[in-house]
Amino acid sequence: MNRHEKTQDASTHLARREALAALGFGAFAAAGVAMAQPASQPSPPSTNPTIPKELPSKGPPTAIIPGNVAPAELNVFDEASGQFVLPQLPYAFNALEPHIDAKTMEIHHDKHHAAYVAGLNKALAELARIRTAAGDSALVKFWANQVSFHGAGHINHSLFWNMMAPAGKGGGGSPRGKLAEAIQRSFGSYEQFVAQFKATAASVEGGGWAWLAVEPWSKQLLLFQGEKQQDLMVTGALPVLGIDVWEHAYYLKYQNKRADYINAFLNLINWEYCGKLFDRGIAR
Ligand SMILES: [Fe+2]
After folding, report:
1. Residue of 7, 210, 233, 269 with fewest CB within 10 Å of its CB?
2. What is the residue-wise DSSP string for 100-111?
3. Ligand 1 mean position to 45 CA, how many Å?
4. How far does residue 106's CA lie from ligand 1's centre (Å)?
């Protein structure tokens, strides 16, 4: 049993309240942190409408995690310290070669992803200072935006690492099970999905992401772009597959040839994990 399977049960026991709070991911999920109330510790309403309601001081802020992912599965938050943390990669830096080189993976994880974790903790700490009147309440919008940007970056990358696997050893091939059926239903065929996926990822302006997501009400799959980490996300949509198309994800090896990187990424997709995210998404 792999670690995803071990934690699958936990995901099915997410409190209904938390699941409803976890509206989508990226910006929506990150914004949910500032809005969510811990079910066991209700806080009085804020008397100042410009200051966010009380955040839970301890425990995983599950509203930031997409509703089809168990918080413990991603290892993104340390309950003991109350801090978000950088999860380990599920494989070695060089495991995705030749499609993604080891140096890119090392910089991407150890520098870029780590910076999002630090930025998220910093932003949450600044909001806490504002709540106790030690900070400048005029900056609440700035720090809330920082939570959105860095929080989305942290969760996006934590998912992204798990959405890939070494080619031929869990990575590549084609989708299976209900996800394969949904791709057929939503896009006409796997080949047509790939064509739209490539075009979506290739045309993201500047840095950003392309996401395959399931919209739980219709159970339809959507492909959309996420500019930066979080803009243009679809409320309620749950991640199934994402590709990071910021230049830091591919420039050392592919320079300006983003399309070549997208083609290489197809050899690394962990369809087993993506299928689980889809199955959980439509089961909610
Ligand atoms: Fe990235």
Report:
1. 7
2. S-HHHHHHIIII
3. 37
4. 11
Residues 7 and 137 in one domain: yes
CA of 74 to the centre of ligand 1 (A): 16
Rounded to the nearest angstrom, the distance between the alpha carbon of 164 and the centre of ligand 1 is 13
Task: Report the alpha-carbon distance of residue 50 to residue 140 in Å, rounded.
Answer: 7
- Out of 40-54, 69-83, 117-131, give the one with best mean pLDDT: 117-131
Q: Which residues pair with 225 in a beta bridge?
A: 210
Distance 248 CA to ligand 1 centre (A): 6
12: amino acid identity, one letter: T
Range of the domain at 7: 3-162
Per-residue model confidence as pLDDT tens digits over 251-268:
999 999 999 999 999 999
Quick one: 129 and 17 in the same domain?
yes
Residues pairing with 171 in the sheet:
167
Is residue 69 a part of any domain in this protein?
Answer: yes
Q: Ligand 1 centre from 261 Cα, in Å?
A: 13
Q: Is the pTM of this model over 0.85?
A: no
**C-alpha 112 – ligand 1 centre gap (Å):** 6
